Amino acid sequence: MSDTQEHIIMLPFLALGHMIPFLALANKIQERTNYKITIVSTPLNIKYLSSNRQNPNNISLVSLPYNSFDHGLPPNTENTEALPLKDMVTIFNSTLSLKDPLKKLILEIIKKDGFDENSCIFNVSQLHPFMKLANGIKAIKNLTKLPVWCIGPLLPQCMIKKGEKDQILESRIAKDHGLSPEKCIEWLNKHPKNSVLYISFGSQNTISTSQMMALALGLEDSEKPFIWVVRPPIGFDLQGEFKSEWLPQGFQERVEKGNKGLIVKSWAPQLQILCHGSTGAFLTHCGWNSVLESLSEGVPIISWPLAGEQAFNSKMLMEEMGVCIELTKGVESVIEKDDVKKVIDVVLSTSGKGKEMKEKANEIGISIREAVKEEGKFKGSSVKAMDDFISTLLCTRNLSS
Fold first, then answer.
1. Which of 14, 261, 334, 374 could form a disulfide with 79 if both were Cys (CB 3.0 to 4.6 A apart)?
2. d(Cα 35, Cα 41) in Å, to the nearest integer?
3. What is the pLDDT of residues 211-256, one digit of tens each?
4. 135: exposed, middle or buried (C-beta count within 10 Å: 0-12, 13-18, 19+)?
5. Rounded to an integer, what distance in angstroms lies between the CA atom of residue 349 and that of residue 56?
6. What is the C-alpha separation between 298 and 53, in angstroms, rounded?
């Protein structure tokens, strides 16, 4: 085995919010080793990843056979982007079809690269049945004594180092969207520091018609400037045309005429918006990527968790970090315009709780940048964890040679 090159195979879940961080992780590993890395996904996702990377040596992108039609999904549906809620379980279950092609690929790599099939140090079959059901870093550390490395956040460098361009960010800019980065920056430049509320529920979430109406009325009553990424409400095609009747009559014309609001349909350059000094708060579903992007820029959060682990994220942000106020939960809750106005007024206030949340968010932003900082002899906790992870890989390689 000493004559072979180590090989890492990565299989991200079929969601764009998982794939980009996996690509960033692969790049970090590649910077520190000469390992081969293969990222595996379905054909359309591999095509997407190909357009979102530089082209480092030894990182391969391999597609596995997948036909969404075979699983009862719409044609050319290979990730959760804009996928209706009713189809989420279907795409989860469809990933089981990748098991055999993935196993075949791994066996081919083992034979091609000359690895010993019995050289695995750890296999999931060795886990205690309770551990197979458990989740979380603490559980793994305490119950199995396995090493765990916290190497995040896997954010674009431009969010960590101000002014530094980043390939992933630039390629995201090229995506078809409803608001160009240039128009976004131009609009934000017209507003005072920390005054704008940014609203987005991620790439695969939306709210109900009645909630959308209440949110719009509350925004208008607050008289605070905002950028709102709107999608068709729940029950409608997320990729379909947006209808004016889903918002109060004349709402878009009024807010845009007074330069109080910017309605964006489909997609907005989120990273640029959060990086801009005029952005003062983020109304979000609390997906983890959005949380990290917001806090890395010191932007406090109004949470509206909709699915998955988002309610837990919201609870942590409120109770442990003090950087968040929760507006409501889910798509069945009833909210009034006064509820919306109240939380906006609190979070965007320059005094009281709003000021306190902003200060705590700034502190966390500093901690995030410190964690990934590497200057001279100084290494942040994330950098140290990555180095330790790589050292363990190299040590394992030497021991098995």
1. 14
2. 19
3. 999 999 999 999 999 999 998 888 887 777 888 889 999 999 999 8
4. exposed
5. 45
6. 27
The angle, 0 to 180 degrees and rounded to 10, between the axes of the packed helices 337-347 and 352-371 is 60
Q: Which residue carries 């990748």 as its tokens? A: 98
Cis peptide bond N-terminal to 153, omega within 30: yes
Distance CA 370, CA 22 (A): 21
Output the pLDDT for position 192: 93
Helix runs in 137-250, H state only: 137-144, 157-160, 167-173, 181-188, 209-222
Cα(212)–Cα(199) distance, rounded to whole angstroms? 12
**So what's the pLDDT on residue 274?**
93
Contacts of 221 (CB under 8 A, 6+ apart): 337, 338, 340, 341
Other residues' Cβ atoms within 10 Å of the Cβ of residue 18: 18
Domains in the chain, CATH or no CATH each: 7-154+377-396 (3.40.50.2000), 175-369 (3.40.50.2000)
8 Å CB contact between 177 and 268: yes
Helix or strand or coil: residue 212?
helix
Sign of CA dihedral 84, 89, 94, 100: positive
Which is more confident, 144 or 121?
144
When pLDDT is cut at 50, 70 and 90, the band that residue 174 belongs to is: very low
The pairing of strands 261-265 and 226-230 is parallel
State which amino acid sits at residue 5: Q
CA 205 to chain centre: 13
Q: How far apart are the first and last CA of the chain?
A: 5
Give the number of other CB atoms < 10 A from CB of residue 328.
21
Beta-carbon contacts of 374 under 8 Å, excluding residues fewer than 6 positions away, are 380, 383
CB atoms within 10 A of CB 190: 10
According to DSSP, residue 94 is labeled H
Spatial CB neighbours of 268, under 8 Å, sequence gap ≥ 6: 177, 178, 179, 184, 200, 227, 229
Give the separation between CA 11 and CA 17, rounded to whole angstroms: 13
Q: Give the pTM.
A: 0.73
**pLDDT tens by residue, 67-120:** 999 999 988 899 988 787 778 889 988 999 999 999 999 888 887 866 555 544
Q: Which residues pair with 36 in a beta bridge?
A: 7
